Amino acid sequence: MSLTRRQVTVAAIAAVPVAFSATGTAQAKEQRTLYIAGDSTAAQKYADAAPETGWGMALPFFLHKDRRVANHAVNGRSSKSFVDEGRLDVILGAIQPGDFLLIQFAHNDEKTADPTRYTEPWTTYQDYLRLYIEGARARGARPVLATSVERRKFDASGNAVPTHGDYPAAMRALATEEGVALLDIQALSLALWQKLGVEETKKYFNWTDTEQDNTHFNPPGAIAIARLVARELLRHRVLAPRDVRRLDAEIPESWITWPSPATA
Fold first, then answer.
1. CA pair distance 135, 185, nearest whole angstrom
2. Which residues pair with 102 in a beta bridge?
3. pLDDT at 163 (0 to 100)
4. Most CB atoms within 10 A, among 115, 158, 196, 248?
């Protein structure tokens, strides 16, 4: 389905950081924004979903104030449905030269029974990702690919198990082919879950009294993944040392807040 004109307008306004709109035009042009296109693991969550937390909510804690984050990630979207709903168009209508577009999809691309979301790793998945890459480059922005963060899954021996099939490999291959920076969050998160182990990882996912969610994060998990993302942005020289902060600092869970649900 396509977004209505009202939905597109609301989405565009909601993604503009408050500090950006409060500054003058001249100052705003000096600021560079990092746009996130992705799914529920990165998305902004609202009060009715707490304590579920997307890692995009925690990423600003690791970036200096002149590096804004415009989080367009939405629950349930794949690389395909995000495009088909007009959400990439919203980003490309706002992104400016010098900005960044961070792209993380796979969780929902894997849904073979849903033709509105499914993509095949080595063909349609790569084809859709190219739309993001080419769209950003055409507007003078820098695309950045990020393999999908891993789910919490362990085998009987306590080993963290990958769950994304060929999608990470397909994204890695595309990054090499297109000369795009790749943040290998799948490999890094899998290693983190392995280090933490079966029981400790429960403290990073949305495990509550009523649900045991092995896909979505709570505040500690979102902060941990955002830290990985920020470190990789620095390591791959997407961002400079002056752009990042607190990479080794403790981030209080209380910094995470869930606003009231957005109205459309």
1. 23
2. 36, 144
3. 98
4. 196
